[in-house]
Automatic annotation (TrEMBL):
The lineage of its organism: Bacteria, Bacillati, Actinomycetota, Actinomycetes, Kitasatosporales. The keyword Magnesium does not apply. The keyword Magnesium does not apply. Transmembrane segments: none annotated. CDD domains: CYP170A1-like. This is Cytochrome P450. It holds the Pfam family p450. InterPro entries: Cyt_P450, Cyt_P450_CS, Cyt_P450_E_grp-I, Cyt_P450_sf, Cytochrome_P450_Monoox.
């Protein structure tokens, strides 16, 4: 088989001009899972551009830990930067350390405890409209819940409400557009195709709404005790305040990434509990002991061990951020192969999580694989990335998902309306569609 880069096998099936566009659009998960059979590093084509997919955990760790050599870049990161600005998720290595220091105080343990109080309040309203025994659209419910909860963390002023509603409306179009434009040949992205028009419209509406909120906060000059207020008061090492462009990028990044990833994780967790009723009943026994039927709080977290393992296993099977890119800043070597400067590297948590060499029985939903006594391959679980660029909101997301899922199971018995597997739409997250669940109130269900 021909090789374009020395020592790196090329995946078959690339077409002129479009490369591997069709499998990446039609069934990217199946395509990714075929790549390890060709080697630890595999070349694919994104339009006319060659990219190298990294297929072993230790090699992915090398990429993640050496973020100066393997800088943020490549088609996916470029599109994220286009959609959200050069915030923490998309900024280059040269800007990352300062940005991380700026945002880190907002994710301290003391702040997380305060956010947990907001989470508990929002969880109280999550199922308020659920009818006993009536089917619910889980994705829609979790999307609204995650949006309202994360938005209240970022900005609490009433003037921010229109921005929250606008961003909620625009998010699906933004995330769908990021993935499509990353895998489409550049020429197609410049054409006025309906998908491109929808993406640009959604992005521009969200940007304008957040910009208006930042201006409103600056004008009232009031500390609302939220993340936006903190950023407006933050000073850099030179004693200068942050500009609107950087604040805008950070807020867009936290809002968009936080809402989508949390909603998707909770939707998949509910789906899996319906497919594995024995695990659901074990989780109900835990929540009955810890919560009864009340809403979970920060202080309950140490006792909600199975709930946390259920979320962890969900993130293994359906990692929200399933595919990401980096760029080689300089010529380097990886697995004894020469990687020229400016080469795009792709790593996929989904691929690594579903490789039986590193995660035995990868298709099985088994929260007990995360018990303390179980052994794991280093780097074979990376839903939040790793190294200095590991997701800053990982503890926030785990806290919110654990509290919400525990409360749902404590108060409702869940079952699938039908047994058809959900349709997965690969965009920037693995988004499920068609998760219809019947929820029966535990106060009316006999033990």
């Amino acid at each position: 088989m021909a090789k374009d880069l020395e020592g790196i096998t090329r995946a078959p099936g690339a077409l002129p001009v479009v490369g591997h566009l069709f499998p990446l659009i039609r069934d990217p998960l199946r395509f990714l899972k075929t790549l390890p059979s060709y080697g630890d590093l595999v070349q694919i084509r994104l339009g006319p551009q060659t990219a190298v997919v990294v297929c072993r955990p230790e090699l992915v760790q090398e990429v993640l830990l050496h973020d100066r050599t393997y800088d943020k870049g490549g088609p996916l990161i470029e599109r994220i930067g286009n959609a959200l600005g050069d915030g923490l998720a998309a900024c280059p290595h040269s800007a990352h350390r300062r940005q991380r220091r700026t945002l880190q105080p907002a994710f301290s343990r003391s702040c997380l405890r305060e956010y947990a109080a907001i989470m508990t309040q929002q969880i109280d309203t999550l199922a308020i409209d659920w009818g006993d025994g009536q089917p619910i659209d889980v994705a829609e419910q979790m999307y609204t819940f995650a949006s309202d909860t994360i938005a209240r963390t970022l900005f609490t002023a009433e003037s921010a409400a229109p921005a929250i509603d606008t961003v909620k409306e625009c998010l699906p179009g933004i995330f769908r557009g990021i993935y499509q434009q990353a895998v489409f040949p550049p020429l197609l992205n410049r054409l006025p195709l309906p998908s491109n028009v929808r993406y640009e419209r959604a992005r521009n509406r969200a940007w304008a709404a957040v910009s208006k909120t930042i201006s409103s906060y600056r004008q009232d000059d009031e500390n609302h005790g939220d993340v936006l207020s903190m950023l407006l008061k933050t000073q850099d090492d030179a004693g200068n305040g942050l500009g609107d462009t950087e604040i805008h990028a950070q807020i867009m990044t936290l809002l968009v990434a936080g809402i989508e990833s949390t909603a998707v994780a909770l939707t998949w967790a509910v789906h899996l509990l319906c497919q594995y009723p024995d695990v659901q009943e074990r989780l109900r026994a835990e929540t009955a002991k810890v919560l009864g039927t009340r809403t979970a709080t920060w202080d309950d977290l140490p006792q909600l061990d199975l709930a946390r393992r259920v979320i962890t296993e969900t993130l293994r099977i359906y990692p929200p951020g399933w595919i990401l890119t980096r760029t080689a800043a300089t010529e380097t070597r990886l697995a004894d192969a020469l990687i020229p400067a400016e080469t795009t590297l792709i790593y996929s948590p989904y691929l690594i999580h579903h490789d039986a060499r590193f995660n035995p029985r990868p298709s099985d939903f088994d929260p007990d694989r995360w018990l303390p006594e179980q052994k794991h391959v280093r780097g074979a679980f990376i839903p939040f990335g790793g190294g200095a660029r590991k997701c800053i909101g990982d503890n926030y997301a785990m806290t919110l998902a654990t509290l919400a899922l525990s409360t749902i199971v404590a108060q409702w018995r869940l079952s699938s309306v039908d047994h058809q597997p959900p349709h997965i739409e690969p965009r920037m997250t693995l988004t499920p569609h068609g998760v219809q669940v019947r929820a029966e109130c535990m106060q009316t269900v006999p033990d």
